[in-house]
């Protein structure tokens, strides 16, 4: 089984062909293709970790859907002043399916 470690959405993800990953929002519509460059490692018949060899490898993924993460609630409070602030946030995410490592 071939896998690669790529930088996607501000994090490093370990992916192989057929995997589905959720990362920060990527521009594009469902069905579009996205390419990532491997960061650290590609493991197949032989382990590839040198910078020159990794420059030739591309990881291709297809956008499945755009979605939003769970709601987080942010509360700020200062004692004895009457200051309260409530805020919510939902992160914009994209679900990708890895199609090719070549």
TrEMBL record:
Q: Does the keyword Transferase apply?
A: no
Keywords on this record? Ribonucleoprotein, Ribosomal protein, RNA-binding, rRNA-binding
Q: Which InterPro entries does the record associate with it?
A: bL21-like, bL21-like_sf, Ribosomal_bL21, Ribosomal_bL21_CS
Alphabetical list of Pfam families matching this protein: Ribosomal_L21p
What the record says about family reads:
Belongs to the bacterial ribosomal protein bL21 family.
Q: What does this protein do?
A: This protein binds to 23S rRNA in the presence of protein L20.
Protein's recorded name: Large ribosomal subunit protein bL21
């Amino acid at each position: 089984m071939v896998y690669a470690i790529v930088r996607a959405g501000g994090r490093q993800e370990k992916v192989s062909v057929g995997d589905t990953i959720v990362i920060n929002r990527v521009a594009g519509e469902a069905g579009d293709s996205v390419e990532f460059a491997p960061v650290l490692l590609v493991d197949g018949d032989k382990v590839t970790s040198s910078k020159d060899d990794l420059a030739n490898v591309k990881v291709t993924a297809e956008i499945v859907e755009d979605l939003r993460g769970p709601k987080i609630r942010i509360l700020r409070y200062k004692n004895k002043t009457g200051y309260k602030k409530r805020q919510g946030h939902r992160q914009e995410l994209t679900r990708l399916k890895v199609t090719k490592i070549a």
